[in-house]
Specification:
heterodimer, A: elongated, B: mainly alpha, 5 helices, 3 strands, 11% strand, globular, transmembrane (chain A), membrane (chain A), sodium:proton antiporter activity (chain A), Na+/H+ antiporter subunit G (chain A), PhaG_MnhG_YufB (chain A)
């Protein structure tokens, strides 16, 4: 029973991580590519970590909670890196399917202190 | 009190993280964790001078559950979009007007938006009033803005900025 649960969890994890990476190849522009690896992996990595937690808690003496920390650090760092990548892409005017708001361009390239960019 | 224990919540949190890192509940590691949890806030005081006011822990809990649920659902949605291929997506940027004022609140909201699959917070206006969000498949920009404000911004405001 335990084996089956672990197998299912690991398979789910592997499938979602794979779909996340697949997004990197299939999506058409920078911003849409950003969504695959940073996001579809939350279920992927999550269920792998749950599997790891169950496995090490039952196989060895004592409970294993390292994985909670991995989740925590992942959830703190993933959005930050996604935000920075996307912000940098906006600043560099990366080719995009969707139209970036004019406000971004006006502010980023007009200098920080010009009053009309801060509307 | 203020001087010796500047962040009453950070201290037990750091201690807990230390215990998790050491992966043991031995008295020694708990003590060391508490010691670190007491010293680190004192040394990093200049980085966050004001303690985070957490009010309404129940709202916070409900918010965390809502976010967890949204992450699961949106994760499936993004996986489905990727499998269907690029012809069906409608990527768009939306401008979310912010009611949040504190740095902590805005960064929490931006992180939450990025964590839920299908949306990435991309840009914050220098006056911190508009958050630009990139969505992978936006059917209705107004509805997306409304959802973000109702599901995420309102609870964050209630917990961290209520007066």
């Amino acid at each position: 029973m335990l084996e089956i649960t672990l197998t299912v969890l690991i398979l789910i994890g592997a499938i979602f991580t794979f779909i996340g990476s697949l997004g990197l190849a299939r999506m058409p522009d920078f911003y849409t590519r950003l969504h695959g690896p940073t996001k579809a992996t939350t279920i992927g990595v999550g269920s792998l970590l749950i599997a790891s937690m169950i496995h090490f808690s039952t196989q060895e003496a004592g409970l294993s909670f390292h994985e909670v920390l991995v989740t925590l650090f992942l959830f703190i760092t993933a959005p930050v890196s996604a935000h920075l990548l996307s912000k940098a892409a906006l600043h560099l005017r990366t080719r995009s399917l969707s139209e970036p708001p004019p406000l971004v361009d006006a502010t980023d390239h007009a200098g920080r202190n010009s009053p009309d960019s801060l509307s | 009190m203020r001087r010796w224990l500047p962040h009453p919540i950070l201290t037990p949190t750091l201690a807990l993280i230390w215990v998790l890192l050491a992966n043991s509940l031995a008295p020694g590691s708990i003590l060391l964790g508490l010691l670190l949890g007491w010293l680190i806030p004192i040394f990093t005081l200049r980085f966050w001078p004001d303690p985070a006011p957490v009010r309404r822990p129940l709202t916070l809990l409900r918010f965390l559950l809502v976010v967890g649920y949204d992450i699961l659902v949106a994760n499936l949605a993004v996986a489905w979009l990727i499998l269907r291929g690029a012809n069906h997506i409608r990527p768009a940027f939306v401008e979310v007007p912010l009611d949040l004022r504190s740095e902590l609140g805005i960064s929490l909201l931006a992180n939450t938006i990025s964590l839920t699959p299908g949306t990435v917070s991309s840009w914050l206006s220098p006056d911190r009033r508009i958050l630009v969000v990139q969505g992978l498949d936006v059917a209705d920009p107004e509805a997306l803005i409304e959802t973000i404000k109702r599901r995420y911004e309102t609870p964050i405001r209630e917990v961290f900025e209520s007066c």
